[in-house]
Amino acid sequence: MDKSNLIELVARYKSGYSLEQPFYVSSEVLDTEMDCIWKSSWIYVGNTAQLPKAGDYFIFRIMEEELIIIRSNNENIHAHYNSCTHRGSALCTEQSGHVAKLICPYHQWVFDKDGTLLNARMMPQDFCHADYRLRSVHIKTIEGLIFICLNNEPPDFEPIRNGFHSYLKPYQINNSKIASIKRYSLNANWKLVAENFRECYHCGGAHPEYCKAVVGANLREDTSLIQKEKELIWAEKGLCTELVEVTPGTTSYAVRYPLRQDVESYSLDGKRVSIPMGLHTDYDAGVVGLVNYPNFWMDAVSDYIWTMRIIPVSASITDVEFCWLVDEHALEGKDYNLDELTKFWEITGDQDAKLCENNFRGIQTSGYQPGPYAAVEDQVVNFVDWCVEKLRVGLQQ
Ligand code: FES
Ligand SMILES: [Fe+2]
Predict the structure, then answer these.
(1) Does domain 47-154 fall into CATH 2.102.10.10?
(2) CATH class of the region 159-393
(3) CB of residue 102 inside a 6 A radius of ligand 1
(4) pLDDT tens-digit map of 209-258
């Protein structure tokens, strides 16, 4: 598909209907999305609890780009390209680890954690080390969540910070502990995974455990009264309740909503699964739901945080990473049982994975044509509109 075909495809898009097949299966569309969406947005990479000590790092890969996300000291986290400035070798070959310095495995150039070139052996006297520091990309953190932008001129980060900051603060992610990280590879286009997590039209039929925990998730109960009652209680405790809606051109969404009466946590029996997290003192904080396009989702209850990161691998494969965070003092085996803690989202995530893969399977057939979204899928429309607008603007350049 050449550029003029792509422009025509985008021009044919009808808001309110699912996308035409090529949006979900074409590698040319994905290449364009890489430039227009993924390389020009703030992308979620992970959290600071993954890097508790100076020298801790993990690799973040998206398509051909590979970055070393590394802590240089108590405060600073960097995102360096995993490419030596001598002849380009990858510096880190493990997925994560701890280093005192970054030493290239090829000819042993030595870089400090902040990217400074410290030693390039046998180079001439007049060799200027400062010219060969590691190349890095923009990086921002909000209360322990780490975002990067691959573009030299990133979009304004402040709207994301402003939307999320008050919701995140009580969890104290900077001092929290990783309970578990799990990675899945889905046979589905990344946008189908994103769409799935922007509506609960499917929840009543697909998620009995989720609907048992969250009032109104089945879309058959009126939640306005309980929402209002709870908002008064949350406000008294200083917990943020201000809805942050994704409006055209913005990327972040934040909301707090109630669990059912007598449900304390996202767990199979509704009971608490760990000690209250961060500044929370009880199990009545409801659920904090955060989303940032294109790849970050978080659902947090009083005793743990669950995050989801999605990354396209190809038009038909999406990598999904789940992370469970608990309070820094929570001890496994005493304060939480890993199986109990992770079961709820493993089951719910598995149900969603099957829905996304089924969706992709059907879209690949010749019988697929765009269908109408229901009114309750308005946030899916918002997401798809956002993607198509990004493509439209990018293709004009
Ligand atoms: S490529 Fe890294 S030192 Fe030569
Ligand atoms: Fe779902």
Answers:
(1) yes
(2) alpha beta
(3) no
(4) 999 999 999 998 999 999 999 999 999 999 999 999 998 889 999 999 99
